[in-house]
Design brief:
Length: 205
């Protein structure tokens, strides 16, 4: 089943360590919390330097959405997050401290519990002088599409038509094929694969 998640309908919640807040976009199972989720997708705004929460047994990916980025110290190894290099993956049990680079940072976060499932993350830009049209195929067990940049995005197939605005997300039915239409935008693609399934494939063509 396809599920549209309007960002305007969501509310922020405190971080696990109480050092900030995050807006949960989607989680599995739907009634899960910080301690028992299998996968989780969220958007966080970091306003000051500080430590990340610890999530032992969880694989994490962070992607810069807005702002000048930051330096993440991951177990003593500094990694610079910028527009040019906006994505980092790390172990949830790592000690991570963020030092902002000229102001606040808005970041997209993916977490999967490693003994149950794993995730792949992709970014795809839609652009052109006229409305860009692309084809997207949801091949994973769970596929989440997030509009990181751009005013609007429309997904359509022979059964459904879905309109999105910035920061909206949609969970797509496995195997479904879509046309994406946007004047200009950037989409983030999260594929969640449960162990024991076939080897993952690209989520778009």
């Amino acid at each position: 089943m396809t599920v549209l998640i309007p960002f305007a309908s969501l509310s922020p919640v405190p971080w696990k360590n109480g050092g900030g807040s995050t807006t949960e976009i989607a989680i599995g199972p739907p009634d899960a919390g910080f301690e028992d989720f299998e996968w989780r997708v969220s958007l966080a705004t970091i306003e000051k330097d500080g430590a990340f929460s610890l999530f032992p047994g969880v694989d994490r990916t962070l992607a810069l959405v807005e702002g000048h980025g930051m330096t993440l110290d991951i177990d003593g190894d500094p990694i610079l997050i910028t527009d040019g290099d906006p994505v980092v993956a790390f172990d949830g049990s790592s000690t991570v401290t963020a030092k902002l680079s000229r102001g606040g940072s808005t970041d997209f976060n993916v977490m999967t519990r490693s003994d149950i499932c794993y995730h792949t993350f992709g970014r795809r830009r839609l652009s052109g002088d006229s409305t860009a049209v692309a084809t997207f195929v949801a091949r994973a067990d769970i596929t989440v599409l997030f509009l990181a940049e751009g005013d609007t995005l429309e997904l359509s197939n022979e059964k459904e038509r879905i309109g999105m605005v910035r920061y909206d997300a949609v969970v797509l039915e496995s195997g479904s094929r879509w046309k994406l239409e946007a004047g200009q935008g950037m989409i983030y693609i999260v594929d969640v694969w449960y162990h024991g399934d076939e080897e993952d494939e690209e989520s778009y063509e």
